[in-house]
Amino acid sequence: VAANLVFTTAYTLYMLWATQRGPFPKHIKTVFPYLTREHLLLLLHILPCFLVILKPEIVLFT
What are the TM regions of this chain, as residue ranges (predicted)? Predict the structure, then answer.
């Protein structure tokens, strides 16, 4: 359910951007997070989110 919400939100925002604002500027399309440090930072932020989604009893102490 949570993954569906994320994909739906991302698609909706993409459609809003594409229809209301025009295509992405070229300078935004060429920026990619290719550094290992940035990937590690993203991973360290998303892992706790997945942990809370998959095991909420860890946070709720049940």
Answer: 40-61
